[in-house]
Amino acid sequence: KKATPYKTAMNFGALLGLVLILYSVLLYVLDQTTNQSLSWISYVFLAAGIVLGTKNYRDKVLDGFITYNQALWMGTLIVFFASFLSAFYTYIFTSFIDPGMITKILEETEMKMLEEQKMGEEEVETAMKYTRMFITPGMMTITVVLATTIMGFIISLITSAFLKKENPNQSFDNVIDNT
Questions:
Q1: Average of per-residue pLDDT across 40-60
Q2: Please, what sign has the CA dihedral across residues 28, 33, 35, 36?
Q3: Which has the closest alpha carbon to 54: 107, 13, 100, 110?
Q4: Each residue of 38-66: b (16+ CB within 10 Å) or e?
Q5: Residue 31 DSSP SS3
Q6: Rounded to two decimals, what is the model's pTM?
Q7: What is the crossing angle of helices 5-29 and 41-56, to 10°?
Q8: What is the pLDDT of residue 172?
């Protein structure tokens, strides 16, 4: 019995979610959690998870063929499932493991506004008022799911072009009949 796209996406999403969590733990241990340069590496993990999961689905479930739309859907689903694990970790981390991380993020944000963006005191205070509303464990959890899924969709738009492999034996009539 062949695996469904959801089962494949959940399996690879779980693996990708665990990799993202382990990378977050590594950054925390190295005191690099707020290092923006190192956070870009997580996009490499997203791309790798999408490529490996979609390629596995194409080769093992769909007999080596996958349309662009199927690849796009699979990649987005993989990241969607991974984002839930990552969001759960984010909530646990910011609520229980290191609640002081939120204060650190807020302090660094305020410093960047004052020093790098050369904002005035009044502008910074107004911006920080709104920033505090969104930098809470709950809002960060929601943001992780949304932002990760959107980024996964964007990466999947690109990877699907390389992973698609149309079945030359499937005629246009078969495509119509199978929809």
A1: 97
A2: positive
A3: 13
A4: eeeebeeebbebbbebbbbbbeebbeeeb
A5: coil
A6: 0.88
A7: 160
A8: 57
